[in-house]
Request: fold
Amino acid sequence: MEHTIINRKRLLWASFFTIVAAGIGFAVRGAVLVDWGNQFGFTMTELGTITGGGFVGFGVIIIIFSLIADKVGYKPLIILAFILHFLSLLITIATAYIFETMGREAAYWCLYSGTFLFAVGNGICESVINPLVASLFPKNKTHYLNILHAGWPGGMILGGLLSIAFHEIVSWEILMSFFLIPVLIYGAMIFKEKFPISEAKKAGISYKVMLLQFASPILILLVCLQALVGYVELGTDSWIQNITGTILESGTKGVMLFVYTSALMFVLRFFAGPIVHRISPLGLLFISSVLGAIGLFILGNSTTGIVMVLAVTIYGIGKTFFWPTMLGVVGERFPKGGAITMGVIGGVGMLSAGLLGGPGIGYKQDYFASESIKIESSESYNRYKSDHENSFLFFAPITGLDASKVAVLNDHGKELHHDIQRWENTGKQLGDNKSLSGLSLWWKDAKNYASEDETPVLNAGFYGAGKALIVTAIVPAVMAIGYLILMVYFKRKGGYKSLDIET
Reply:
């Protein structure tokens, strides 16, 4: 009996550290987005697509591996994820070399591929740990899934603090490598542990029965709501450091606010059980959606640090319970779906964040920023616009501001000068680096207008960031309506109840 208890605890904490690794990687990537934009000359939309690539890989892999998790077993899949986490880092840190030898487009695909591969490792973990924890704690799924997913904000806290402490000291490549610490921890824990089989496999549930769960309109509605969860939670989180840093005119303050909201999530997720017992999982999701909408709306209209702290507090509390509680609802209402239903829910959320949330919020920033600066100063826009056009879904193509040019303006060319010196110290000619030489040639002319460009460019970034958040607030408002419909439905059916796999 004692061995079983220790086994459950070790597997819970090993699963916890897989999410910590994902959280650290996510937070550090958010902190170095500006470095990637500055170094390689990407627009906000391109940076959003790179971060989105991580979510796309995450989502696809969760769904695919959820289909085979019961058959292959949990342990071999976690070992595969362990290997892929290492490979993802090797590809990502090769970007600077690829940029120097093959150019901007190759560097883009290197970052995209490294982020995608990191997400594959995360996705494999996610396809395992959710049904694993549901099997370990079948009578208290929502509570323990919230504890499990406290690893996400826990990792983001660590990643944010590491970014603050080391961002100005070490290269972004070293900063990205910190996620290997929890990878090594969960690797050491899983290699000597025996994993249980899933609830569904133990009960002899067939694949046909699992897949038939999707014939339920309630599950289909939950899948649609999870797509919105992915957009508003992970899509916004991939940008929140950058956006708040832009509004506050300080990247470090943006990271600090990100750490603060992550700390709220980390603490509150340990108390999901008592809250759910009082108001039900759907009631918790409804309240969270309302708070999320209010928080994002206030945040988008923030003009002072105090108001912004209030806004991110409301938003942070609101987004805390979305993801794990949705998994809990699906696990409780559709236990016969096994790893498949939970995997689809997680996968759809990640796919939405990657295909819609990351690039969509980046597009909105580019759109509103470029429209603003065109009105205030068309000359400044022409000097700072990107050489590349971006589009999103069916919306009209736009040309946003070039992040590398904006960065040069912000520090009046100091970092550009250092970059040129570092390049020439390698013995190479400036002309050998097309991106750097092009930026240098552009700045020779643009610096003559820097004093008149500073205000329009700054105002455009501020306006674009705020408007993007205001528009995003519509998403949790729609979610609240969806959860209210479910609450009314279950009330008419006698109330929300957790179902047993045998029923």
Remarks:
- The first helix runs from residue 2 to 40.
- The CA atoms of residues 6 and 94 lie 41 Å apart.
- The chain has 23 helices and no strands.
